[in-house]
Amino acid sequence: MKKTVFSLAVACALCGTAAAADVTLYGVIDTGLNYTSVDTDTFFGMKHEGGDSFSMSSGQNSGTRFGLKGHEELGNGVTVGFVLENGFDSDTGALSQEGKIFGRESQVFVEGAYGKLSAGRVGLLSSDTGSFGILGDISAFGTGWGDTIGNQNLVFAHKPTRMNNVLTYVSPEFYGTKVHAQYAMGDSNENKPSADRYYALGATFSYGQLNVIGLADYTNKDSSASNTNRGSDMWTVTLGVNYDCGFATTYVAAQYFEDAASVGGAADDAWGRSLASRQGNTRQVGKSYGDVTGYGVVVGTNIPAFGGSALISVGYMDADSDKSGLDVKRIFAGAGYEYPLSNRTRVYGGAGYVRDDVDNTNPQGAEVALGLVHKF
């Protein structure tokens, strides 16, 4: 009897708390199959990356996650809320984001007539993730489709997707325009020069079927004595436009980057290392590649077809690294299709190709992915 009463009391308390704070549990599970083939063409920076692989993968289309979000109305149009979001691999159950419990997002915010102010770990403005990433609408695929399937990051500068100790401000909308500002202290909440610090200012504009996104950001790299591969501070300028003409949505985006630590994918994948610094014929794995300058362009379309969406994207990059003395030109192409089985479930498939011209070699790769996404 006592156990029953206690259980009822806990249930009532939780219900009362949830009602007061308006807490919601949500999530996405994305699991699929992936085939990748890489031909390094003797390029030293990828000499251990060649061959074919077949695997089960998580998050090929949408990052697998679950989270809690809630808010409370304080009156006078002021709202306080939070987002706690966990990332995990659905094929193994392992935590993502270096094992952090809420590695995708962990933030509290205040929102009112003067805009929204957030503090915590969030996605950067230069990403297309979380509550504040604004680059999700500059290409047909975004960054969620595997490593080489239409991914805009293949021709843009690499930055962390998320950072700790971030302050973000989003203005109210004025005539279709919002201003976005962000400052990230990095891993040190004391704002020390021994951490990469990130500054960004962007704007989004919508008018009818037209959407325009612009962003300028600057990374003050770790200047501690232990960081011998620091390189110069990085800055980028990104501009994207999309327009829905009824039978298709067209995307055009471009980015200029200067003194980027690496370009063309994540810093730890094969394509992110095409401009690796070197000593002789040995690439320096895991260290800053340093001072990569150039530009990337992406063009794509999203076409409603047979009850789903057909996606096409092509891109080009031209960049050089002062540190390694290498120049690279890159092309990529991707095609995909998504079909909704219900409001919460869809299947997807896609294929991509990327090819470099670097150091008198032509490393190239292809990828095919199939999978299922379910939202709850």
How would you describe this protein?
With 376 residues, the chain is mainly beta. It is built from one helix and 19 strands. It has one helix at residues 2-21; strands at residues 24-39, 51-58, 65-75, 78-87, 105-112, 115-123, 162-170, 177-184, 197-207, 210-220, 234-244, 249-260, 278-279, 282-283, 292-305, 308-321, 327-340, 345-358, 364-375. It is globular and about 65 Å long. Residues 1-20, 266-270 and 272-289 have low confidence and may be disordered.
Shape: globular
Number of strands: 19
What is the string of helix and strand elements?
Answer: HEEEEEEEEEEEEEEEEEEE
Biggest sheet descriptor: 16 strands, antiparallel, barrel
Strand content: over 45%
Could you report the average pLDDT, rounded to the nearest whole number? Answer: 85
Structural class: mainly beta
Approximate helicity band: under 10%
User: Span between N and C termini?
Assistant: 35 Å
Q: From the alpha carbons, calculate the radius of gyration and give it in angstroms.
A: 22 Å
Query: Spans of 5+ residues with little confidence (pLDDT < 50)?
Result: 1-20, 266-270, 272-289
With helices defined by DSSP (H or I, 4 residues minimum), what is the helix count?
A: 1
Spatial arrangement of strands, main beta sheet: 1-3-4-5-6-7-8-9-10-11-12-15-16-17-18-19
